Amino acid sequence: MNVMQLRWNELADVKRELAARDWFPGTSGNLSIKVDDEFFLVTASGKDKRKETDEDFLLVSADGSAVEGFAGKPSAETLLHVEVYGKTNAGCSLHVHTVDNNVISELYGEAGEVTFTGQEIIKAFGVWEENASVTIPIIPNHADIPALAKEFSRYVSEDAGAVLIRNHGITAWGRDAFEAKKFLEAYEFLFSWHIKLLMLKGR
Ligand SMILES: CSCCC(=O)C(=O)COP(=O)(O)O
Ligand SMILES: [Zn+2]
User: Fold this and answer.
1) Which is the most buried residue in 41, 119, 144, 179, by most CB within 10 A?
2) Ligand 1 test: best mutation among 95, 97, 99, most atoms within 8 Å of CB?
3) GO molecular-function annotation terms (predicted)?
């Protein structure tokens, strides 16, 4: 099996797991995985990502342009994945819209970031100190994708990380699919925990 097929299967596994969590409402979400320094696979635009087909992914070059021979169009948000691979050594980038990530992005959108403290799951980000904190930036949701990608790019420097897009969704990336999914799941856990806590405290 060649590298592209291996990565295709890996991304298909991640896609299946995120679909099982119902993290692709209304055709939202896009996923990518690096094949080599010149190419990555990205989800096809506008499809129901819960469905599994032979046309789920397209090969694109490092600048996001589609390679001939693949059906459909690359994700409308491919330029954000381009930023991740262009600026870091990440191997996988995952974007999902959830109610929880949208609520958190709106609650803290004006502040431009949100910090979570004293939660065991913060260890998923590799931070093991007592009472550790983790901060995620929140950027405005520009309709113009090159403008969105430029804003997003300001927060892309580490090989693993995440950015919230206000009233839109989260993009999380990591050195490989395992790490990208770990970051995504840990952030979604924190969002859900925080919202439930606020609701129970009546704030
Ligand atoms: C209906 S979701 C609007 C577009 C979007 O934000 C998204 O994540 C999916 O776009 P794609 O082109 O990747 O299908
Ligand atoms: Zn989106």
Assistant:
1) 41
2) 97
3) methylthioribulose 1-phosphate dehydratase activity; zinc ion binding
User: How close is the Cα of 65 to the center of ligand 2, in Å?
Assistant: 19
Q: Is the pTM of this model over 0.80?
A: yes
CB 45 less than 6 A from any atom of ligand 1 = yes
| Packed helices 3-20 and 177-201: angle between N→C axes, nearest 10 degrees | 20
Q: Which amino acid is at 168?
A: H
Domain 3-201 has CATH 3.40.225.10: yes
Integer Cα distance of 183 and 177 in angstroms: 10
ipTM above 0.95, yes or no: yes
pLDDT > 80? residue 203 = no
Structure tokens given for 124:
């998923």
Mean pLDDT (whole number) for 108-118 = 98
